[in-house]
Each structure stands twice: as structure tokens, then as C-alpha cells.
Design brief:
Elements lengths: L1 H7 L8 H22 L7 H14 L23 H6 L1 H5 L2 H30 L5 H12 L2 H9 L3 H11 L13 H9 L5 H8 L3 H21 L1 H9 L19 H7 L6 H21 L3 H15 L11 H11 L3 H12 L5 H10 L4 H8 L1 H12 L5 H9 L9
Helix pairs in contact: 2-7, 6-7, 6-8, 6-9, 6-17, 9-10, 10-12, 11-12, 12-13, 15-16, 16-17, 16-21, 17-18, 19-20
Length: 408
């Protein structure tokens, strides 16, 4: 009788305060060490400085695509985003640099935690790992991954875009309902690559979300044209077709398929391979959606964008966070867990930089090429091999009363 009562006794609704404090301390320790090593008041985040300068140009009616843009920056870089992004960045130009640094870093960290909470936490709970320290440890590892760490230290916008796409794809119990698609549309107007989610919405017959996303993106572009007609014409008629403007595709930091092929001097393979991998990636994302694994679907769409885009810098790859969630849900045996750990570990080290250094020192060509293209190879491997739940098991789960959707 005592055993029965013990089994029937309700579990605590909240984790003990000590457990929660331990979890917070673990994540805070990883985060503070990252910020200490990566953020320096004397070196304002480079990409955030570009955003701020673009906002200043838009505020004063100047052309952010003019040759003189970036003359006042620590390193002269072009503004490569659509004109609407410059309008979005106007508030950044109104803040003092110190306040902007603190505020933007806090925003990135907050959105990183949102992504972890939305994507990784359900996968951990599904495995029975309910201790807050487990979630904090996972977040602490992922915040040190090269894409996330670089996004925070450069002041990049990637975490904003990934959070918008995750929330818009309905991965949370409280989906956006009739507003779904708006966030993807705004993200597309800021940076073109999230537009691949409009294709995903169409392929999965989420017609209303696809229409809202397309209309929102078009409306944002139209607003930018009204406010800044000259820069808008320059961008949409000329600059949008210049894939070398952000930088040389052959530079080791570009981990897209094109970048890898440029470094291997077989660039002629880009179109056929890119089309094939793009189709496979979106097909697998569609299968994941129909199996109820929306986090996996979002990860696959993001990975597809990384592979087929002409330029995919290391910090663009924050899509590995939802991909890691899919691996957590799949890693139900020691062998699978080892594979999942190895897949995530690839992104914890700057392998592409090591490969470039080895190349300059005259190292083995084979090892050099593998290291220089390590992230690109990992993107392709995840795109092709990221585990999908079976559709039949998903249907049986959903058919059960109150059956939850899969989280990965």
C-alpha cells in the first residue's frame, strides 16, 4: 500500500530552488566566459557597427549602397541587406554605442534562450530529462558553438531570424494562428534567405501562411521603396544579383556548397548539386512536417538555405540549435548518442580556420580540404541524414486522445 501511495503521489510542479539555481549557474558560467572572451568595449561588434551605420544612413536619407559607406567603420564593409533592413536599423543609430552594445547582446542572448526553450527543451523532456541543469548544460554547450558564439560576438542578426522562423512555423503549443507567416515575411524583407520558408509553407500546403509571408515581405519592400526609392532600385535591379558583394565565395569562412566547390576548383558542380540538395532538403522537411516533427522540419529548411545560398558564413549556421534538438530526440541508444555528440561537436571548434592555417603551413592537401570545408560537409550530412520520425508512428500518436505532436 505504501508503494502504491508513493507511485500515485504527485510530482512537484516546480523544480527545487537548488536545482534551478544550479541550472542557472551552469548556463551563466558558460555565457559569462563567452562574453568575457568575445566582447570587448574597445572593439565594437563589427556587424552591429554595419547595422548601426546603415540605420544612420537611412535616418539621414543617404544611400547605404554608395561607395562611401563604411568609411567611418573600424573595418570598411559593405551593407548587403535589402533596403527595408536599413529602415529597421534606424533605432540602432539613435542609441549610444555602449547602450546599443549591452541592449543588442541582451537581445541575442534572450532570443538564444527562446530558441533553446522552444526547440531543445521539449526534446529533453520527451527523453525524461526534466532536471533544469540538463537544459542549462545543453544551452551552455550550444552557446559556445562557433555559429552562436560568433553571432553574439559579431553582433549579428541571425538569432533574431531563427527565432522568428521557429515561432512562425508553429513549433510551440500556442501557435500564432491567423498571424502565421508574418514573422517569416518580415525576416525575408530584412535578409532574403528566410524566404525559403515561403517555399516550405507552399510545399506543405500551408497556403495561408505562405500568402501572408509573401504579402508581408512585398509590403515591407514596397515601404522601403517609398521611403528610399533610389537605394531600392539599386538593390533590386543590380546588387541582389551580385553574389560576390558580401565577399569572395572562395574565402574559407563561406561554408556554403558554392564556397566548398570554389575552394576545390569544381565550381561547375554548383548548379546541379545545389538543385539536387535543395530539392532533397525541402522534401525531407516536408516529410518531417507531415510526421509532426516541426522542429526537425525547421532545421532542415534552415540547413537547405545554408547549403544552397551562395554565401553562408559560419555565424549563419545557428540552425544547428534546432538540428541538435532533433538529434537529442533521436539519440535513444548509446550508439545514437555517440553519433549525436559527434555531430554537435563538429561545430564547437573552428575547424575551417584550422584548415586554412594548415594550408598556409603546407599541410596535407586532403586533411586541409576536409578541415576547410568541415562545416559545409556537416551541413550536407545533416541535410541528408538528420533523423526523421516515421509517419505511421506519428499518426498513431496524434490519433490518441490528447496525443502530443512530436517536438523533433
Amino acid at each position: 500500500m505504501i508503494g502504491t501511495e508513493e507511485r500515485l503521489s504527485p510530482r512537484p510542479a516546480r523544480a527545487p530552488a537548488l536545482d534551478l539555481a544550479l541550472g542557472v549557474a551552469m548556463f551563466a558560467g558558460a555565457l559569462v566566459s563567452l562574453l568575457h572572451l568575445r566582447i570587448h568595449p574597445q572593439r565594437f561588434p563589427l556587424d552591429l557597427d554595419v547595422y548601426r551605420e546603415a540605420g544612420r544612413y537611412a535616418l539621414h536619407g543617404r544611400d547605404p549602397y554608395s561607395p562611401g559607406f563604411g568609411d567611418s567603420l573600424r573595418i570598411k564593409l559593405p551593407f548587403t541587406y535589402p533596403p527595408f533592413a536599413a529602415l529597421v536599423f534606424v533605432p540602432l543609430a539613435l542609441l549610444p554605442r555602449s547602450a546599443l552594445l549591452v541592449g543588442w547582446t541582451a537581445l541575442c542572448i534572450g532570443l538564444f534562450w527562446v530558441i533553446v526553450h522552444v526547440a531543445v527543451r521539449p526534446a529533453l523532456l520527451a527523453r525524461g530529462w526534466t532536471h533544469p541543469a540538463v537544459l542549462a548544460a545543453a544551452a551552455g554547450v550550444l552557446v559556445w558553438s562557433v555559429p552562436v558564439a560568433q553571432t553574439i560576438s559579431y553582433g549579428q542578426i541571425n538569432l533574431v531570424l531563427v527565432a522568428a522562423c521557429l515561432l512562425d512555423c508553429g513549433v510551440t503549443p500556442r501557435a500564432l494562428g491567423k498571424r502565421r507567416g508574418v514573422l517569416v515575411g518580415i525576416a525575408t524583407a530584412i535578409k532574403l534567405t528566410p524566404g525559403i520558408f515561403i517555399v516550405y509553407f507552399a510545399l506543405t500546403r500551408q497556403w495561408a501562411a505562405a500568402a501572408r509571408a509573401a504579402v508581408t515581405a512585398a509590403a515591407c519592400a514596397a515601404l522601403a521603396f517609398v521611403v528610399a526609392p533610389g537605394p531600392s532600385r539599386e538593390f533590386w535591379l543590380h546588387l541582389v544579383f551580385d553574389d560576390k558583394r558580401p565577399g569572395s565565395p572562395a574565402y574559407y569562412g563561406n561554408q556554403s556548397l558554392l564556397g566548398a566547390l570554389e575552394r576545390m576548383h569544381v565550381v561547375w558542380l554548383w548548379v546541379p548539386l545545389g538543385l539536387a540538395l535543395g530539392c532533397v532538403g525541402l522534401w525531407r522537411a516536408t516529410r518531417a512536417h507531415h510526421a509532426g516533427a516541426e522542429v526537425t522540419a525547421v532545421a532542415l529548411v534552415g540547413l537547405t538555405a545554408l547549403v544552397v545560398s551562395p554565401i553562408s558564413w559560419q555565424h549563419h549556421a545557428v540552425w544547428i540549435v534546432p538540428a541538435a534538438a532533433a538529434l537529442v530526440a533521436w539519440a535513444t541508444t548509446p550508439k545514437r548518442a555517440a553519433i549525436a555528440i559527434l555531430a554537435v561537436a563538429v561545430f564547437l571548434f573552428p575547424l575551417d580556420y584550422w584548415g586554412q592555417r594548415l594550408s598556409s603551413l603546407g599541410g596535407s592537401p586532403w586533411i586541409t580540404e576536409v578541415l576547410r570545408n568541415a562545416f559545409a560537409l556537416a551541413f550536407i550530412a545533416l541535410l541528408l541524414l538528420l533523423p526523421l520520425p516515421s509517419l505511421s508512428s506519428s499518426l498513431s500518436r496524434d490519433a490518441a486522445p490528447g496525443g502530443p505532436r512530436r517536438v523533433a
